[in-house]
Specification:
Number of helices: 10
InterPro entries: HD/PDEase_dom, HD_domain, HDIG_dom
Number of strands: 0
Protein name: HD domain-containing protein
Structural class: mainly alpha
Shape: globular
Radius of gyration: 15 Å
Pfam families: HD
Length: 188
Amino acid sequence: MSTLTEWAYPLAESLLADPLPRRWKHCLGVAERARTIALILGQDADLLEAAAVLHDIGYAPDLAKTGFHPLDGARYLRDVAVADEQVVNLIAHHSCSWLEADARGLRAELDGEFPRESEHLNDALCYCDMNTTPDGTPTNPVDRINEITGRYGPDSLIGKFIRRAEPEILACTCRVLERVAAAKRQPM
């Protein structure tokens, strides 16, 4: 039986590796972070890793339609790739994207087309994304938010969105780390 990750990696690579090699490295790093928290995901570990490697495909030049990568990526996965619905929904809402959708006037479209998945899965994907640099190496969410703000500028739409999302990004990270710590305390 084929796993979601066996399907997701080649798809993400085909869309990102050549046109956006740095973005591809980031997605590989986010997927690596997903593997590090597999112990709290149980049967959803494969689902999260697949969503992690695919989360930024909406940046691919052939997919970018609205300029809002979570929506563009989710639409492609739903309409063209006929992907698993949970993967699609996770990508649509990854890393507090609903707050950016508000700023872009796309919140009704995002919420109308893609329901949010459970908090633990949304938290996990946000944790993985916000703890990975653009080059795919581990970081922490404070440095990641500062890097995003610096790259786009504090007065840009992205700069303002990421600062608005900062409390929720930090809360997601705390919830994930609390679950990991609790899982590690459990006797085998």
